[in-house]
Amino acid sequence: MTDEDERWMRRAIAVARSKGSDPASAPLGAVIVLDGREIAAERNQTKELPDATAHAEMMAIRRACEGLGELELRGATLYSTLQPCGMCTMASIWSKVGRVVYGAGRADVHAMYFEDRHIDTLRFIDDAYRDDITIEGGCLRSECAELYYPPDADLPPEELANM
Ligand SMILES: [Zn+2]
Questions:
Q1: Distance from residue 4's CA to the centre of ligand 1 (Å)
Q2: What is the whole-number distance in angstroms between the Cα of residue 89 and the centre of ligand 1?
Q3: pTM listed for this prediction
């Protein structure tokens, strides 16, 4: 993890915070960088669209592919304020990004942010046919974790996104 990574993660945090500071507004941000240049910066838009697949990472991948006019994002780095869910981890593999960097990890936030009980979806990366993709977590971990419900939060049913 480099100073450059922290700089891009601060940008992802700013994109997330554009939704406000209340965890109820789902402030998740993702930025895709290619050759030192931002090619997409998107926030979670599930409720706004509405579209259950409109996670920040999915939206950023869509914008980046549209912007480049390319199906593949080889050599690009995807920054996300929170560990990608299983869907977004798989989308990272399919989109051919070379590197995924996330801030807060699964253990840093409430279980409502993840879809499965026991599977470690980060292992999708280890198990991919591709051997040119890496994933690293903990970039500005505490700043990112502050955006979300903590692990021990007692949440009302309407906030339990994965139920
Ligand atoms: Zn996701």
A1: 24
A2: 7
A3: 0.96
Residues 61/91, Cβ–Cβ less than 8 Å: yes
Strand 29-34 relative to strand 37-43: parallel, antiparallel, unpaired?
A: antiparallel
Distance CA(132)–CA(33), nearest Å, equals 16
Specify burial of residue 36 (Cβ count, 10 A radius: 0-12, 13-18, 19+). exposed
- Per-residue pLDDT tens over the stretch 123-161: 999 999 999 999 999 999 999 999 999 999 999 999 998
Backbone angles phi, psi at 132, to 5 degrees: -115, 35
**How many other CB atoms sit within 10 Å of the CB of residue 74?**
12
Q: Which two tokens stand for residue 97?
A: 């990004």
State pLDDT tens for residues 4-48: 999 999 999 999 999 988 999 999 999 999 999 999 999 999 999
Known catalytic residues are 57
